[in-house]
Amino acid sequence: MSNIDEILKYFPINLYNVLKNTFDSNRQIEENIQEIRIRIGKPIILKLRQADVLVQYIITQTEILQTLEKMCENSIYSYKNQICEGFITIKGGHRIGITGTAVVENEKVINLKYITSLNIRIARQILNCSEKILGQIIDKENDTIYNTLIVSPPGKGKTTILRDTIRKISNGIEEISFRGRNCCVVDERGEIAAMYRGVPQNDIGIRTDVIENISKAKGMKMLIRSMAPEVIACDEIGSKEDVQAIRRSYIIWS
């Protein structure tokens, strides 16, 4: 099943048919699609690498809710913590951005109601896409890897490159006599390994262990104590707490 087929199954029948016909009529759209944005009372917007495609179908609130319910496996309550962060991650590692009316209590979002739009970001695994940067990550002289931070604007492939880098380091690289390392991944948002019922949907290597849906600080601490990692990887460093967790882990690990 292709990435698009995986996603289309979540849409109500009318919306499914419109999108399916759009993709079938132009294969370039499927090959270049990055996001599907649906907003109440607005046309569908398909974001491609270089352009947007407007699909003249007006979205209803019922279709938004039906789509979200399916993505939450008919149990929105069980995804409440993720929804309060503004997104959920579904099978395949696809991230669904969510907007609506925030319910705030003690300066913390405790719920989102009146959901108004969904942004489906299509995840793609591209094997060997990290080959051009591995020379800057692997310290061949000391048979180890450098502490590495991958930086780019949103939507430019950071997670895709990180995922393939983990796979390479985990498996080992025979061409340069680099042995595989025990890798641990703190997959806080479920986008790296794309775990589904405990099984990674993406290839992240034979020596890789994953803990998901947990903060980086707690996840790193647990993995260091229990799995003796040689490499720890995580995605989206975005807060002081994330930075502090990395610093603490480096000190303990060293």
How would the blueprint of this fold be written?
Elements: H1 3-8, H2 13-25, H3 27-32, E1 33-39, E2 44-48, E3 52-55, H4 61-71, H5 80-84, E4 87-90, E5 94-105, E6 108-121, H6 134-137, E7 138-139, E8 144-145, H7 158-171, E9 183-187, E10 195-196, E11 199-200, E12 208-212, H8 216-227, E13 231-234, H9 240-253
Parallel strand pairs: 9-12, 9-13
Antiparallel strand pairs: 1-2, 1-6, 2-3, 4-5, 5-6, 7-8, 10-11
Helix content: 25-40%
Average pLDDT = 91
The assigned structural class equals: alpha+beta
Biggest sheet statistics: 6 strands, antiparallel
Low-confidence stretches: none
How far apart, in Å, are the first and last alpha carbons? 43 Å
Number of helices: 9
Strand content: 25-35%
Based on the model shown, name its key terms:
254 residues; alpha+beta; 6-stranded antiparallel β-sheet; 9 helices; 13 strands; 33% helix; 27% strand
Structure summarized in a few sentences:
By secondary structure, the chain is an alpha+beta fold. 33% of the residues lie in helices and 27% in strands.
Give structural notes.
The chain has helices at residues 3-8, 13-25, 27-32, 61-71, 80-84, 134-137, 158-171, 216-227, 240-253, and strands spanning 33-39, 44-48, 52-55, 87-90, 94-105, 108-121, 138-139, 144-145, 183-187, 195-196, 199-200, 208-212, 231-234. Helix 8 runs parallel beside helix 9. The protein is built from nine helices and 13 strands. The strands form four sheets. Strands 3-2-1-6-5-4 form a six-stranded antiparallel beta sheet. Strands 12-9-13 form a three-stranded parallel beta sheet, with helices on both faces. By secondary structure, the protein is an alpha+beta fold. The protein starts with a helix and ends with a helix. Helix content is 33%, strand content 27%.
